[in-house]
Amino acid sequence: MARIGIIGSKGRMGQALASAIEAAGHEHSGGVDQGEQPGPLASRSDVLVDFSAPQALGANLAAARVPGIPLVIGTTGLGAEHHALIDEAAGAIPVLQTGNTSLGVTLLAYLVQEAASRLGPEWDIEIVEMHHRMKVDAPSGTALLLGEAAARGRGIELASHSESGRDGHTGARADGAIGFAALRGGTVAGDHSVIFAGSQERLRLSHQAEDRAIFATGAVHAADWLIGREPGRYSMQDVLAL
Ligand SMILES: NC(=O)C1=CN([C@@H]2O[C@H](COP(=O)(O)OP(=O)(O)OC[C@H]3O[C@@H](n4cnc5c(N)ncnc54)[C@H](OP(=O)(O)O)[C@@H]3O)[C@@H](O)[C@H]2O)C=CC1
Ligand SMILES: O=C(O)C1=N[C@H](C(=O)O)C[C@H](O)C1
Q: Which residues belong to any copy of the Dihydrodipicolinate reductase N-terminal domain (predicted)?
């Protein structure tokens, strides 16, 4: 049984996570939200799980480093500066960062990388996502994770091939681009499709989250797996040995 602390505990994911911790037979060691310090929570936990906001990341990493416990980061909307902080902290503690903790999306990313490596560059790659009306970041962390998987399969950098927010007279699609489109509305837990558009045919690989409980279950699994690991940066593909 592990003591799991929740950062962002009163949010949609924080509440789903509390249920998943109990269902898995672990102990919920408490939670923090905006304006609260994560240090005391870290000192009474074996692992922290963060579903909060990017601006909380620095304090969360620092808090986990004091007792030397692992941190699972599910928060999305991270920028290059956040990834640099994670890389630095991963020299001292185990850190798992992912835009999606579900089993289905982790497998989807694997399949997307495989498809992108087998289909030639003439197959255009577009990623479409839809989420509930309260979501604040776009493209979603999952869409970016799938874009990274496609770019890896192609042997290219996502940063220099990404096209999003098309509007107006955009000109023709750039050769080799990986496109992103984000839809928002209702209560959608998370839909993602990666479309490979070739000449006269299309291949679509999709995942639909029916309930955010799948993210919570995956996060608990990841947290449990991370305890006792060597310091380093890990992914859900490591957890599932893909
Ligand atoms: N990786 C994955 O599988 C998934 C990732 N997510 C991501 O998780 C994050 C949270 O999503 P969701 O639960 O829907 O969002 P919510 O807005 O429902 O919850 C966010 C919670 O974080 C708290 N919070 C905000 N700022 C801080 C801070 N500085 N320190 C501590 N807590 C803070 C909020 O508190 P307050 O209300 O007081 O501001 C709130 O309780 C998002 O980035 C989302 O994209 C979501 C689902 C799955
Ligand atoms: O904010 C959400 O709800 C979700 N966020 C993650 C993302 O940005 O991909 C994961 C999931 O799709 C739900």
A: 3-100
